[in-house]
Amino acid sequence: MTNFSELSSTFQHLQALAPEAFMPITSEAGLISATAFLKSLDQEIGDTAHHPLAELANTLMERVMAYEAEHYPIPPAAPDMELRLLMKERGVTQQQVAAATGIDQAQISKLASGKRTFTAEHARALGAFFGVSPAAFL
Fold first, then answer.
1. What's the pLDDT at 126?
2. Is 55 helix (H, G, I), strand (E, B) or coil?
3. Whole-number Å distance between alpha carbons of 126 and 80
4. Which of 21, 30, 32, 116 has its CA 20 to 30 A from that of 91?
5. CA proximity to 24, closest of 55, 67, 80, 79
């Protein structure tokens, strides 16, 4: 059974030792403080496998990323850029994409260069091939 009295006391002590690790990130100043603490924490952990502070670092990283995603969203890439990026990441050629999707290679070339607009059919076929949402191409 959990001893909430001891847990509360320990948590208050942890908050006093490292407030940056536990306070909510609600402002740019909070983000800067949390990021600086995370860098220090990362240096402390280093390459140590199963370091006792690793989970704290992971939790703080998730909070930093959540704040950044909300306040500094990255707009989606243009469909042609998304296609080029996926092809490069997967190491596939236009010919391979064409063969796998049934889209003519000349069309793949035009889509990848931004000279042709993606249709819903293109988006579905490419989404299925790359394992991403068809919305990435629309």
1. 98
2. helix
3. 12
4. 116
5. 67
Among candidates 35, 101, 102, which has minimal Cα distance to 63?
35
Q: Look at residue 75 and tell me whether its pLDDT is greater than 90.
A: no
Q: Where are the chain's structural domains?
A: 4-71, 79-137
CATH number attached to the domain at 79-137? 1.10.260.40
- Please report the pLDDT score of residue 52 as a whole number: 95
Q: CA 124, CA 119: separation in Å to the nearest integer? A: 9
CA angle (80 as vertex; 74, 83 as ends), nearest 5: 85
User: Is 0.85 surpassed by the pTM of this model?
Assistant: no
C-beta separation of 132 from 79 below 8 A = no
DSSP string, 56-100: HHHHHHHHHHHHHHHHSPPPPPPHHHHHHHHHHHHT--HHHHHHH
The C-alpha atoms of residue 59 and residue 14 are separated, in whole angstroms, by 15
Residue pair 31/25 in contact (Cβ under 8 Å)? The answer is yes
Rounded CA-CA distance 128/121 in Å is 11
Is there a contact between 97 and 89 (Cβ–Cβ < 8 Å)? no
Written as six digits, the tokens of 7 are: 């847990």
pLDDT, tens digit (0-9, with 9 covering 90-100), for 4-14: 999 999 999 99
